[in-house]
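User: Reviewer 2 asked us to show a designed sequence for the structure in our supplementary figure. I'm pasting the structure tokens here. Could you produce the per-position amino acids so we can include them in the response letter?
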């Protein structure tokens, strides 16, 4: 009976330590991010001395090392022998509301109050009292803060604390993959968050190659991965988006393909096959973790891709393209059926641009062959799979939180830990 399971315990001839290949893994040394790490540390220095620091906004595309860098700095801060500040790291995909963020702060620093079913005001007052005990500075890192549905309220609450306490204070470090969410913020929140900005550019091919070389040494058996395979995986990821997560997923998938065929090493053909799989998986992961209204727009596009739009291009070369205005009408219909706030046309267009930057859709301005002048949009992945995936999250709502009736859960979102290279 044990024979069918023998393969499960057989030592891999391809992989040595797969954890090193995970995007969640934070290495001892982060390549090509010294400048950004130094800027983060410099911005935090006043807070670490016990002074009120300036808030920081960190931005860049997915897979550019934002989360790895901020986690790296957080761990270094926690190892300091004497520091005037306390720090809380918040994964906003899990703690996606003001109530949850405040509860996370309480859980980290005053756990005796964290699970008592207190309301927002009570938790806030407990945090204020805790800070006033010895003039603490609290650094709150909000990773993917654009996910927080009541971000304006949260920013107001955290910054209000600086007025409510006699000394000490709160410093906010915001991290985001998207810039368009700024347009949804109250101007006061916007000015508060953007006191300092740190940009993370995409990695180029040579940088991705160096990152993969660094991981491959520990992650694979000697001789399994050659430089040609590393260079190809790096070039593909650089061409797509400069995303280190994608590069790591490609080389890992290539290892799995080689292992499944009984090979002893990875070939460039394995890398090519792996790239096609990895790009699709990354896209579905991104779609599953989009902010609510961007997911609703993708859902509208997926539904229309299956049912067809009212209008067709006169040349009929590619009926998969849909009129942007018609997509917006379907998005409005969906939000109304779900009793959700509908975003305006200007913000909708910005969302479509974000989706295009992430490779989920492609679009172009219409020319000859279309009545009038409009934008044509096409979904880049299988609409059936996307429709099914989003429906599971759109319609699986959960009961209200126990927070004195102040909030209820949003549409379900993926609660996987933020990727290390986000």
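Assistant: Here is a per-position design you can include in the supplement:
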């Amino acid at each position: 009976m044990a024979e069918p399971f023998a393969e499960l315990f057989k030592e891999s001839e391809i992989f040595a330590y797969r954890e090193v290949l995970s995007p969640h893994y934070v290495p001892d040394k982060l390549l090509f991010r010294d400048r950004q790490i130094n800027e983060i540390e410099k911005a935090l220095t006043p807070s670490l001395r016990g002074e009120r620091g300036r808030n920081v906004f960190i931005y860049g595309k997915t897979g550019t090392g934002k989360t790895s860098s901020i986690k790296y700095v957080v761990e270094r801060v926690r190892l300091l022998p004497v520091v005037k500040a306390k720090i809380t790291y918040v994964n906003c995909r899990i703690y996606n509301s003001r109530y949850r963020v405040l509860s996370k702060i309480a859980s980290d620093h005053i756990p005796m109050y964290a699970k008592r079913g207190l309301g927002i005001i009570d938790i806030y007052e407990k945090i204020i009292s805790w800070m006033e005990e010895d003039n603490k500075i609290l650094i709150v890192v909000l990773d993917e803060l654009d996910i927080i549905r009541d971000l304006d309220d949260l920013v107001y609450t955290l910054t209000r604390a600086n007025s409510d306490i006699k000394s000490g204070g709160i410093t906010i470090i915001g991290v985001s993959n998207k810039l368009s969410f700024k347009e949804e913020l109250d101007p006061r929140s916007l000015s508060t968050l953007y006191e300092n900005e740190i940009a993370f550019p995409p990695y180029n091919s040579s940088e991705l190659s160096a990152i993969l070389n660094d991981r491959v040494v520990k992650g694979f058996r000697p001789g399994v991965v050659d430089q040609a395979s590393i260079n190809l995986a790096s070039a593909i990821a650089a061409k797509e988006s400069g995303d280190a997560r994608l590069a790591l997923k490609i080389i890992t998938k290539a290892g799995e393909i080689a292992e499944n065929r009984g090979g002893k090493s990875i070939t460039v053909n394995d890398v090519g096959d792996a790239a096609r799989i990895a790009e699709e998986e990354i896209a579905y992961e991104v779609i599953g973790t989009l902010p609510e209204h961007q997911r609703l727009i993708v859902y509208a596009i997926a539904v229309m891709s299956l049912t067809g739009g009212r209008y067709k291009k006169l040349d009929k070369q590619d009926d998969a393209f849909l009129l942007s205005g018609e997509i917006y009408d379907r998005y409005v219909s969906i939000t109304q059926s779900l009793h959700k706030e509908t975003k305006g046309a200007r913000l909708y267009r910005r969302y479509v641009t974000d989706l295009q930057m992430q490779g989920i859709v492609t679009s172009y301005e219409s020319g000859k062959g279309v009545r009038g002048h409009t934008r044509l949009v096409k979904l880049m992945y299988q609409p059936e799979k996307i429709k099914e995936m989003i429906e599971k999250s759109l319609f699986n709502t959960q009961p209200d939180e126990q927070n004195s009736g102040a909030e209820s859960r949003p549409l379900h979102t993926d609660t996987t830990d933020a990727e290390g290279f986000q």
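For the response letter, you might also mention the following. Residues 397-420 have pLDDT under 50 and may be disordered. The chain has three domains: 3-22+203-288, 34-200, 292-381.
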